[in-house]
Amino acid sequence: MARRRYAWTEKRIAKFLREGRGLGIGASYTPWLTVSDIPSLGKCHRLFWPVTGREHHLLSDLEYYAFLRKCFDDRTLDIREQFPLPRHETLEIATKLGVKHPKINGVYIVMTTDLLVTRSTSSGPIERAYAVKPDDELLDRRTMEKLDIERTYWEKKGVTWAIIPGSSLRGNVSFNLEWIFDCLRDQMTEPPDEPTVREHLVDAIEGLGDFPLRTVCSVVDGRLALAAGRTLSTARRMLSEKALLVDLSVSNLSNLPASRFSVVER
């Protein structure tokens, strides 16, 4: 039953096209594949990002880390994950390259680009496409053939395309961003008492700078009679908004002295 649910058929592809998968920008965009569309073979992620105003679907840890790095860049205006490439174009490209087009159970699948990022520049918005791959897959000939189809597609569109190897994503910056943005998973809007908590947190950081951030946040929880961890969640939200700054290359942010965090005035 599960295999039939996820199997690619022309009927399923037609259904996705009718649903408008891959169309729209910002909040109106729907990725070609969502977390519920694929068998659970690895760790998938859903994350609401305030900039686009929608929930994003990342199908692996590596895709998630790449997404977090792009969305934390102030120049990023939009991210469209699992962006579908028109089959008639990828089929034509595969023929010209002399390689086999991806096919599952006799059905030519719709190829996708992991991340299509729109970013601001001095001359206006531009798009950049990214394929996110584990390093070992980049040694596989068949994987490289499929990536060549993808590269050629974006080259014809005049869009810069690049591969992001997994080894470049595993490190403190990615792990810290994961910890920071995890606060947005279950809480899409700020709680009513957020301004008060932020005000007390800023005062506590200035007055208790020698103590770890986690301890300072616990002090604020006690002062305001909040549930344990409530103020730390606010700190993470402030970090996600860059209302609070810290060196992301170090480990265990919550254990850093509060003095290592800089408050940015709104």
Describe this structure in words.
This protein has 266 residues and is an alpha+beta fold. It contains nine helices and ten strands. Helix 3 (61-71) packs across helix 6, helix 7 (194-207) crosses helix 8 (213-223) and helix 8 (213-223) crosses helix 9. The longest helix has 17 residues, at 141-157.
Defining key terms:
4-stranded mixed beta sheet, elongated, two-stranded antiparallel ribbon, alpha+beta, 266 residues, 9 helices
Largest sheet: 4 strands, mixed
Percent of sequence in beta strands:
15-25%
- Percent of residues in helices comes to 25-40%
Distance between the termini: 53 Å
Q: SSE string, helix = H, strand = E? A: HHEEHEHEEEEHEHHHHEE
Low-confidence stretches: none
Structural class: alpha+beta
Main-sheet strand order equals 3-6-7-8
What is the radius of gyration? 21 Å
Number of strands: 10
Shape: elongated
What is the residue-mean pLDDT, rounded to a whole number?
93
Annotation field: number of helices = 9
